[in-house]
Design brief:
- The chain is an alpha+beta fold and 135 residues long.
- It starts with a helix and ends in a 5-residue tail after the last strand.
- The protein is built from 3 helices and 3 strands; from the N terminus they run αααβββ.
- The chain has one domain.
Length: 135
């Protein structure tokens, strides 16, 4: 046997060897799995932020209609709603208006959706209207 035949046999043996194929495939799929996991966690956190924003807006609208001694003006309503909100406070605002339905509160917050590679700001908002208590 000459050297070329030995090299060819070694190459054929290497090409037929499948012992590390699953490890190589795992290395190729791993970054996608990590991005998918981080994205799923961020979607869950964003849903939590929206839920707490909605709760704070509903409670603030009720406070403006029923607890008029606690929520006397826009500043006290803002403080009341912020105390009930449990998320990131980037751009958090609450606005009170009086409409036909009663006291309407609109809340908004900017959520930073981060995937590890990029970060995107997603504006979230919620509104609630509570009838004015006339008793």
């Amino acid at each position: 046997m000459d050297a070329i035949e030995l090299i060819m046999r070694a190459l054929k043996a290497i090409l037929r060897d499948e012992r590390a194929a699953s490890a190589a495939e795992f290395v190729l799929v791993l970054p996608l799995l990590i991005l998918l996991t981080i994205g799923t966690i961020n979607v869950g956190l964003m849903m939590y932020v929206y839920s707490t924003l909605n709760f704070a807006v509903e409670d603030a609208a009720r406070c403006a209609s029923v607890k008029t001694t606690v929520c006397t003006d826009a500043g006290t309503l803002q403080a009341y709603a912020e105390a009930r909100y449990r998320g990131p406070a980037d751009g958090l605002t609450f606005a009170l208006t009086t409409e036909a339905c009663g006291s309407r509160v609109v809340g908004s917050v900017d959520y930073d959706f981060t995937t590890g590679l990029t970060s995107t700001t997603i504006p979230l908002s919620a509104s609630a209207c509570y009838p004015v208590y006339a008793g």
